[in-house]
Amino acid sequence: MARFKKKQSVHPDAPLLHEDHGKPMSRRQFVRQGFTAGGASLLTGGVLSLFANPRDAYAALSPDLDDLVGALPGCTLSGGGGTNVPFICFDLAGGANFAGSNVLVGDSGGQEDFLSTAGYSKLGLPGDMLPGQTQTETLLNPSANNDYINRELNLAFHADSPLLLGIREKAGSAIGNVDGAVIPARSDNDTGNNPHNPLYALVMTDPSVRGEVVDLIGSRSSVSGGNSMAPAMYINPEFQPTKVDQPTDVTGMVDVGDLTSILGPNDVTAVMESMARVSHYKMKAGVATGLSNDDIIKDMVRCGYLKAADIASEFAGVPVDPLGDPLINRDVTSPPGLVPGNPLAPFSAAELANDREFRKTASVMKMVVNRYAIGGCVTMGGYDYHTGDRIAGENRDLRAGRCIGACLQYAALKGEPLMIYVFSDGSVASNGRLDDSAAPNGGTDGNNNLTVGGGGKGEWTGDNSSTACSFFLVYNPNSPPNLVGSRQIGYMNAGASVVTSSSPAANNINLLVNMIMLNYMAANGMVSPGNTTAFTTAFPNHGLGNNLDSYISFGNIRV
Q1: What global pTM score does this model have?
Q2: Cα gap 308→139, rounded to integer Å
Q3: Is CATH 3.40.720 the classification given to domain 81-100+164-252+320-427+458-551?
Q4: What is the distance between the alpha carbons of residues 539 and 547, in angstroms, rounded to a whole number?
Q5: Distance between CA 232 and CA 142 in Å, rounded?
């Protein structure tokens, strides 16, 4: 097989232009080709968005204000976090490769029911790097002599996977207690119209559990919170994800202004409670004297002040900035100047300053792992990487792996469970020509992180929805997750095309969301093989058929 040496590489932040693609015209096209990160305005817990957010009062408000909350129709405070497993999804916009060169996908016998040589070539793997055969060296094992399979995450990856390399680099403390499953499933190429996004369905699994500040967050200000759509049947405007893609979005949600620099946390709460009381009695007097007849708006304003008092009682004086969290940023101290930062924290200050994807990931994982939100979506653009080489996709996969690994490591340092779901719109394929390009920038990026070359693997030369798959990882802080089913749900044929009859989701992305929610409920102990009533109650029209047990991979990881 001829090998091709690429003279120049594409930076992971560089936009992608393809001869067979028109120039991008829409926001979604800009995102998937890496022209924009998808900035937008912040939607916070304002006065008119604070209703239908039920929970038992979590913050220690004064008893008279607890009574007032009960007296205002529809006025309830934030969710209190609950104990359900935090959930983060990664939406890699553009059509990333997962199957074969990253996560192993096999025939009907599972991940290690190997495909044909031609099938692996289609997935970018040359004949001398096939899983199951003796290897000489890889990125992960420079002097290894095994079978090109890495099982450190229990879910089998190709031993030369850049996605795995990034995960391993950042998730050191978590790795022994991670497992996962891959789901071969077709999705349309280069479009945000795939109903991949599961955030609204996440709320439906347990309506009693809500976020302490907001329910759902996403790094884009779309209806779904990401690049891909949410299934239309599950969209509820009441829960539209709040945009979070930078640390100031996190701090802005719980900001009580300059009061904390003047007063202590308890005094801030007292001030906000007083404002709520004053507002209530002034409006009550206004209604009595006929100054206003719009009682609904008045109740909304009253509830807004109560929400502000609730947030102040819980977060005044609490460090919520991801950049200042010593379990995220290893170069900070806590308290300032006294306790050294945690050397196991996934990011350095330089990485957070110089890489927008790291800042975005840090912001979302801070909100979700701490249960300020019950679920979040991180959209990363530029995964339409069939650039006639291999090196562009390798380094973008490497950075996505670092972001996934950082979430796992943060959960490990916090002692929290976590489920991560990774998907993309379509996929890519190789024509078999190999790329031996050297790693860019002498093998490191501007943050002294490793960069990788083409690795002698097949160039990505075009979109191909038949090679698509999604996968999820689960992390249990106490022990490896309990495998109760298979690490592969559905399968490919020997030629590396999804067998569309291999699972209900293989040719129906709406059902892929349902399958992920079935496994999320299993991770929370809500369902198990032989006991799936809670799922069928939450999703009565789920479309997965009667054999739900066969689609459950893991048992309860909830702590």
Answers
A1: 0.81
A2: 51
A3: yes
A4: 15
A5: 47
